[in-house]
Amino acid sequence: MLISAYVLLAASLLGATRAADYPFDLTTLSAPDGSITAKFVSFGATMTELWVKDRKGKPRDVILGYDDNSQLLTDPAHPVFNPIVGRYANRIRNGKCHECQVTLHGGIYGWDRRNWTIVSRTRTSVTYKHVDNADEGFPGVVTAFAKHEVSNGGVLKTTVSATATQKTPIMLTQHIYWNLDAFQDGSNNILNHHLKVDASRVIALDSFALPTGDFINVTNSPFDFRREQQIGARWDNTVDLCGSGCQGYDHAWVYDNDASRNVGTSLWSDLSGIKVDISTNQPATQVYTSFWLDTPRKATHGGPSLSYGRWSAVAIEQEGYLDAINTPEWGVDQIYDPSRPFFWSSTYKFSTRP
Ligand SMILES: *[C@@H]1O[C@H](CO)[C@@H](O)[C@H](O)[C@H]1NC(C)=O
Ligand SMILES: *[C@@H]1O[C@H](CO)[C@@H](O)[C@H](O)[C@H]1NC(C)=O
């Protein structure tokens, strides 16, 4: 009895026992004080639900997702609901990394569409592992560990550490789609959400949505969220901003201050009263107001008869300078090797406003 329990425990710690529904096996984490509950699947180390309390104390699920998590693999729209994205997130010019002398075939199947395995789990944390065997055309094998942890006072922390066997570019993110009303009280989009970003520069993009090497000064522009603004406050000035025919934002703001010591980005809603403050060790934040979304909602969000559509959510991703590997004028080194491990960390602190 004792021995078999021990063997089972050892086997599960090694990830040897897998739930029948792997890689869509659900792990639920709850803070002891009941302030936050988060659910994850192994596929993409993806967060599938995130429940926090509104100002009346009622829990709401504030992230987008599916009722059937196997849709993470099969949904042809592939909206990328809340996984870890890697090994190099966002776009790369011509699929090339000049600094590492390779052409990346890139993005056939990134880390968000891989079957990660659980290496450890408690009531408040789960750690997933993924070994990336250079199968997307990147040099070297990268071993990544993603840890999600909840704690009292409404805190979610995600960290990703990655080690490469050869010189290779690494740039990760956690691609979370937020709607802090959870589509209740008649709320269907995030245009009334308040956003504050500690950044006076945005990465300027060309018509292929790749960096030109320049920055946009946010002063007197619709990009200025240094003082909080409702996302939709200057909406008329965002026509074609996220691409031809696309209204809204899909840009990277470069933080003015170290966002690991200061809050980098805050988002809140007057309706639910829910606020999230994001701190990170990353230098930038991508904000995408989800113009192109079109996927049936979760039942708790009014689905499946209603869909997540245009501006239903805002994706906020803590990340490095996008395509810095092809933008040498920035002098940002995104090449990692065995002596230089990669580390990504973000903390999401929830509170309510009166
Ligand atoms: C990952 O899981 C999916 C869904 O079960 C499966 O189709 C696929 O073969 C798995 N991939 C690997 C590499 O095991
Ligand atoms: C942006 O422009 C304003 C007004 O012209 C100027 O005062 C400020 O220094 C500029 N900021 C940056 C980061 O260039």
Automatic annotation (TrEMBL):
| Family, similarity comment | Belongs to the aldose epimerase family.
Gene3D superfamilies xrefs: 2.70.98.10
InterPro entries found in the cross-reference section: Aldose_1/G6P_1-epimerase (IPR008183), Gal_mutarotase_sf_dom (IPR011013), Galactose_mutarotase-like (IPR047215), GH-type_carb-bd (IPR014718)
**Gene Ontology annotations of biological process type:** galactose catabolic process via UDP-galactose, Leloir pathway; glucose metabolic process
Span of the secretion signal? Answer: 1-19
Gene Ontology MF, one? carbohydrate binding
Which UniProt keywords are given for this protein, alphabetically ordered?
Answer: Carbohydrate metabolism, Isomerase, Signal
Q: What is this protein called?
A: Galactose mutarotase-like protein
